[in-house]
Write a structure and sequence with these properties.
Length: 163
């Protein structure tokens, strides 16, 4: 029978002998635990706030309430990509949440500012939409790039409609 657990004295090292460890190095086995999973979920929420905006009770970066008699929080608007039936990945659509100020910036866009939005995750993926503009005739946001290419790889049209 041999001992198991954390070593305090190393096995014989040729030319050195046994070494006593003053501070044993503990192995980390947290990757499957609930704490590890929640920590990684929190990291994703904080690093990809636009993608997960629908999960927040309050929109990230917004100030709720009233300052000097004016509302400081703009209304959140819900847009949706077209439904795709391409297989794979399967029938689905994506959501995008933007506020009124962002929509106004898109409507006034003259080409000097690049807008990039990340969609919700559906069917195991999300999209990064860029080069957005407002189409007055369709009353919709049009994107020119999806994941860096001109046509969405899974068949969504380039039109975002407001829900």
């Amino acid at each position: 029978m041999t001992s198991s657990g954390i070593r305090i004295v190393t096995p014989e090292i040729p030319g050195v002998g046994q070494v006593r460890l003053r501070y044993p190095i503990m192995p980390i086995h947290g990757e499957g635990s609930g704490v590890w999973k929640e920590l990684n979920a929190l990291k994703d929420l904080s690093m990809h706030q636009r993608r997960f905006a629908s999960l927040y009770e309050e929109r990230p970066g917004s100030i709720s309430g009233n300052e000097n008699g004016t509302m400081t929080d703009s209304k959140t608007l819900h847009f949706k990509t077209s439904m795709t039936y391409q297989d794979p990945p399967g029938e689905h659509a994506h959501d995008i949440f933007i506020n009124e100020l962002e929509l106004e910036e898109i409507k006034q866009h003259t080409g000097d500012k690049m807008f990039v939005f990340t969609t919700s995750e559906d069917m195991g993926h999300s999209h990064e939409l860029s080069a957005l503009r407002w189409d007055n005739h369709k009353k919709a946001i049009i994107f020119r790039k999806c994941d860096g290419i001109s046509a969405c790889w899974d068949g969504h049209s380039n039109k975002l409609t407001q829900v």
